[in-house]
Amino acid sequence: MIELIWDEGFKKSYKKKIKRNRGLKEEFWKAMELFVGDPFHPRLRTHKLSGKLKSL
Q1: pTM for this one?
Q2: Above 90 in pLDDT, residue 9?
Q3: Closest to 14 measured CA to CA, from 2, 34, 32
Q4: Structure-derived torsion over alpha carbons of residues 6, 11, 14, 16, reported in degrees to the nearest 10
């Protein structure tokens, strides 16, 4: 299972942009559910890192 860690920068951005917008908030949490279940779900358009970030 993936462990999510929310840093302070993310929390600030979330409060500023997502928390106040109900539609965006719902989309965000649906995407987070997908990500926790399958980080490479096609809808998320995620990809493996390469180069210096490959091991992260």
Answers
A1: 0.68
A2: yes
A3: 32
A4: -170
